[in-house]
């Protein structure tokens, strides 16, 4: 039942995209998002779309996978589209009650939907091709300069990797407890809203008890191995930029530059 | 009519992704009312997936499951109906305890069945009696009990629905020997007193050899062997190639046979082995 949650899932692979340094992918993603927000016209959207398609093709991620990941966002996408459509500025093409549909409104709605979808798909490309562990490693290294202003970078990234690490475990556990309670006749998907809320109790109590137990065990296990924070900690896998990373940086810069040019010459 | 009838059941996990896995691959099986069936198989052989089909928690990708004339996959109501007929005790069932008191936790199933308070009380007390949970514990929190007691309460929570079929997935995993022994005894007792059909999944060949009247061996999502314990354990070589063991008694008999002792190698209980050995010793005189 919960198996179809693809958000934040990692698909192992051996493609050039998988091999990129996680820092490169993070920076590329930031560049991609910047380009997406700079984009103003069809040509630049097409360019960004081609980039996305090329990356997903290289990474062997099927369009179907990306689209199914978008499903939970359907409501937000539709809502944004409607708001933009119904409250656009400019000359109304059609008016009813308090709503005015304008040419600008339609334009805004289409671009906004495309922007949200490409934004989310772009971040999916990162999480689909990067294991959570190397992702947090990359993040920690990128944020390292912030240690100067006393930001506990290592602790934050450790918390993040632990949280990411336990998402699948918790999903699995939820599934198990749900099955066990269903086997005792619990009904999670029928009845009134209040009944359904009450029906969650047999699920949530064991889930929380389990999460606290696990947290306790993990803390003990970490202390047993003398964990004492990031001070003087070395890593088994040293991250190093390679040629392919520089190629990715170049591509990213090119994308932003192209979008800027297109923005100014408004094609 | 068999109480459980499974026809060419197949189940695939994560179809269409890189994680696709055929968990159950074309299983045909019939189980008669009142049988005590032991299910064995190495980790990942499809046992757990299989048993979840028997009470409608999973729906078959292809094939059918008929429980006492009903197909749990046919409708939501049928699935719910079947869930009260087929009680399923998961691995480490103590992690599903959630109520404030032991009594209320055991009463969760019967309450879902829509029984009245008097019936619920009767069902709960009877179930607690079956698994040896004393009434003095009824008002304590299930989370404060010892591991063994929690396990008993959780099993009682399933037995309290008075299922016609009771399925237990590794009910003795992680318990001490005394705890294992008494839980197995409770299960046997339940089987004999109520005449319910029992399916017991276990990794312990010795336990299962002693109490089951029929064994079904799973391997790679298929039924590899099916029959009386003596038949199944006479395929010692095959069992070992599937990553399974044979009971210690069979192991000893096989070793003795290898050294030229004339002994029946299909024995599987320690008691029978002892009898045989004593009689053998009688034949060769004192040594």
Set down the secondary structure blueprint.
The complex is a heterodimer of chains A (267) and B (287).
Chain A: H1 16-19, H2 22-38, H3 42-58, H4 63-70, H5 74-86, E1 92-96, E2 99-102, H6 103-129, H7 132-143, H8 153-183, H9 193-199, H10 201-224, H11 243-264
Antiparallel strand pairs in A: 1-2
Helix pairs in contact in A: 2-6, 2-7, 2-11, 3-6, 3-11, 4-6, 5-6, 7-8, 8-10
Chain B: E1 4-13, E2 21-31, E3 36-41, H1 47-53, E4 62-67, H2 76-85, E5 86-89, H3 102-112, H4 117-131, H5 147-159, E6 165-169, H6 177-194, E7 197-201, H7 205-211, E8 214-219, E9 222-227, H8 229-233, H9 236-241, H10 248-258, H11 270-284
Parallel strand pairs in B: 3-7, 3-8, 5-6, 6-7
Antiparallel strand pairs in B: 1-2, 1-4, 8-9
Q: What is Rg of chain A?
A: 23 Å
Overall strand count of chain A? 2
Largest interface: A-B, 23 and 27 residues
Strand content of chain B: 15-25%
For the largest sheet of chain A, list the strands in their spatial order.
1-2
Structural class, from helix and strand content of chain A?
Answer: mainly alpha
Your description of this structure?
The complex is a heterodimer of chains A (267) and B (287). With 267 residues, chain A is mostly helical. Chain A folds into 2 domains: 157 residues, no CATH class; 74 residues, no CATH class. Chain A has a two-stranded antiparallel ribbon with strand order 1-2. Chain A starts with 15 loop residues before the first helix and ends with a helix. The N terminus of chain A is likely disordered. Chain B is α/β, with parallel strands linked by helices and 287 residues long. Chain B folds into 2 domains: 243 residues, 3-Layer(aba) Sandwich (Rossmann fold); 41 residues, no CATH class. Chain B contains 11 helices and 9 strands. Chain B has a 6-stranded mixed beta sheet, sandwiched between helices. In chain B, a hairpin with a 2-residue loop joins strand 8 and strand 9. Chain B is globular and about 65 Å long. The chains are: A mainly alpha (267), B alpha/beta (287). Chains A and B meet through helix 8 and helix 10 of A and helix 2 and helix 3 of B.
């Amino acid at each position: 039942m919960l198996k179809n949650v693809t958000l934040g899932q990692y698909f192992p692979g051996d493609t050039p995209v998988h091999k990129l340094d996680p820092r490169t992918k993070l920076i590329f993603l930031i560049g991609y998002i910047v380009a997406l927000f700079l984009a103003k016209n069809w040509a630049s959207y097409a360019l960004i779309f081609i980039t996305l398609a090329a990356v997903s093709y290289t990474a062997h991620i099927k369009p179907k996978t990306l689209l199914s990941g978008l499903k939970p966002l359907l409501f937000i996408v539709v809502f944004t589209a409607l708001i933009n459509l119904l409250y656009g500025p400019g000359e109304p093409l059609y008016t009813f009650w308090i709503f005015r549909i304008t040419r600008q409104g339609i334009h805004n709605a289409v671009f906004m939907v495309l922007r949200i979808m490409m934004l989310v798909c772009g971040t999916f490309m990162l999480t689909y091709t990067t294991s959570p562990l190397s992702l947090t490693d990359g993040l920690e290294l990128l944020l390292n300069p912030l240690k100067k202003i006393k930001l506990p970078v290592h602790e934050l990234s450790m918390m993040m990797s632990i949280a990411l690490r336990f998402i699948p475990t918790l999903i699995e556990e939820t599934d198990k407890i749900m099955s066990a309670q269903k086997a005792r006749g619990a009904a999670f998907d029928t009845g009134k809203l209040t009944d359904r809320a009450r029906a969650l109790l047999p699920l949530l109590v064991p889930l929380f008890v389990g999460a606290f137990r696990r947290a306790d065990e993990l803390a003990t296990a970490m202390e047993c191995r003398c964990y004492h924070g990031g001070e003087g900690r070395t890593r088994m896998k040293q991250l190093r930029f390679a040629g392919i990373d520089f190629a990715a940086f170049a591509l990213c810069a090119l994308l932003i530059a192209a979008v800027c040019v297109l923005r100014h010459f408004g094609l | 009519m068999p109480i459980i009838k499974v026809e060419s059941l197949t189940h695939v996990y994560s179809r269409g992704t890189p994680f696709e896995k055929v968990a159950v691959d074309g299983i045909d099986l019939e189980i008669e009312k009142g049988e005590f069936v032991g299910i064995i198989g190495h980790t990942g052989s499809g046992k757990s997936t299989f048993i979840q089909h028997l009470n409608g928690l999973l729906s078959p990708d292809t094939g059918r499951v008929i429980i006492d004339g009903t197909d749990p996959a046919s409708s939501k109501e049928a699935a719910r109906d079947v869930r009260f007929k087929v009680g399923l005790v998961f691995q480490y069932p103590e992690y599903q305890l959630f109520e404030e008191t032991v009594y209320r936790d055991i009463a969760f199933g019967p309450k879902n069945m829509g029984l009245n308070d008097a019936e619920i009380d009767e069902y709960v007390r009877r179930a607690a009696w079956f698994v040896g949970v004393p009434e003095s514990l009824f008002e304590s929190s299930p989370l404060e009990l010892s591991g063994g007691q929690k396990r008993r309460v959780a099993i009682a929570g399933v037995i309290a629905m008075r299922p016609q079929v009771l399925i237990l997935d590794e009910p003795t995993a992680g318990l001490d020997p005394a705890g294992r022994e008494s839980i197995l005894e409770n299960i046997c007792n339940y089987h004999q007193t109520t005449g319910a059909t029992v399916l017991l999944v276990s990794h312990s060949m010795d336990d299962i050899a002693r109490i089951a009247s029929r064994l079904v061996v799973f391997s790679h999502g298929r039924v590899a062997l099916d029959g009386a314990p003596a038949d199944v354990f006479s395929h010692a070589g095959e069992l070992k190639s599937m990553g399974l063991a044979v009971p210690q008694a069979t192991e000893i008999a096989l070793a003795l046979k290898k050294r030229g002792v004339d002994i029946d190698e299909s024995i599987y209980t320690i008691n029978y082995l002892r009898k045989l050995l004593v009689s053998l010793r009688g034949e060769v005189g004192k040594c």
